[in-house]
Amino acid sequence: MSDIMQPVMGEKGCLPGCMTGKGCLIYVVVVVIVGFLASKLPVAMPEIALPAEPVFTLPAVGFAVTNTLIATWLTMLLLIVGSILVTRNMGLVPGGLQNLVEWGLGVLLGLAESVAGERGRKFFPLVATIFIFLLVSNWMGILPGFASVGLIHEAPHGGHQAQQVSVLGLRVNILQAGEVGEHETGWTVFSFLRSAATDLNTPLALALISVLMTQVVGVQAQGLRYFSKFTPSFKDVLGLIVGPLETVGELAKIISFSFRLFGNVFAGEVLLAVLAFIVPYLVSVPFMGLELFVGLMQAFVFAMLTLVFMSMATMGHGSEGEEH
């Protein structure tokens, strides 16, 4: 094994091209110097804003296209193109990208069937679509350019100072770190791209789809008696309370779904933006790995909760549940 690893790792166990401990030290010093110089560039702390920023407006209808909407379109485009590439040359013996996709879908299908039983295959298309869309959307949010490249706009009530510099012969507007007064005219940046889930509208739309489909599969499995759990029973005091609580619980799912996804993804994007401004290239790298994990877990939790709620909706409650 040591003979095999020697050509790859080098004499001192370093990366290729780094044949000595001195070479490894040079790599580290270069990274530190580049990071330090980048931190001295006349750029400003990124603006933190909850609502999505408009990038342009469609003149015919007056519809404002926001950066999160553009990111959503890019996510859908990537999924469509990826689906075409995977399925255009499918073979009985999968290989390459087809093999990877089939393995991932097989894992999701097995998980769905282990949770929902024979109905798992029926729920699988919706659950897998939610998971894959959120996973790609969340991971795209850490790509270079997201939440950092955009248009400079005037901020009447404060903001950053602006300066023009020459880059490869072009005059480019950049923002300086100095803040202007509260009553002075400053500048701010509206980024071209921002992760779709950082706009509350996207998690809310997915939550509404999830909860609505839960009611649909419940009616399909139990008929109209499914809605009996939302109506109060006058047989005893407990029956008067359970019905309204079930209704509140269904509405609470929408709030829980929306703010859990929105809060985690938005906080992660803000964390990476701030760290990249304070200590570029070095401190933010481990947090990018953490955000990859958080993006995966948020997509997984959203999809699995949808699967669990849909599975529970197909089961009876009360005496009907005991008979089932």
Give the helix/strand layout.
Blueprint: H1 2-9, H2 21-39, E1 54-58, E2 63-66, H3 67-87, H4 97-116, H5 120-140, E3 150-155, E4 160-167, E5 170-179, E6 186-191, H6 201-222, H7 237-278, H8 284-313, H9 319-323
Antiparallel strand pairs: 1-2, 3-6, 4-5
Task: Explain what the structure shows.
This protein has nine helices and six strands; from the N terminus they run ααββαααββββαααα. It has helices spanning 2-9, 21-39, 67-87, 97-116, 120-140, 201-222, 237-278, 284-313, 319-323; strands spanning 54-58, 63-66, 150-155, 160-167, 170-179, 186-191. Mean pLDDT is 75; it is low at 1-19, 38-43, 161-178 and 318-324. Helix content is 58%, strand content 12%. Helix 7 packs antiparallel against helix 8. The protein folds into two domains: 54-146 and 196-323, no CATH class; 150-191, no CATH class. The strands form three sheets. It has a two-stranded antiparallel ribbon with strand order 1-2. It is α+β, with helices and mostly antiparallel strands and 324 residues long.
End-to-end distance: 58 Å
Q: Provide the low-confidence segments as ranges.
A: 1-19, 38-43, 161-178, 318-324
String of helices and strands: HHEEHHHEEEEHHHH
Computed structural class: alpha+beta
> Strand portion, in percent?
5-15%
How many helix segments? 9
Query: Could you give a short account of the major beta sheet?
Result: 2 strands, antiparallel
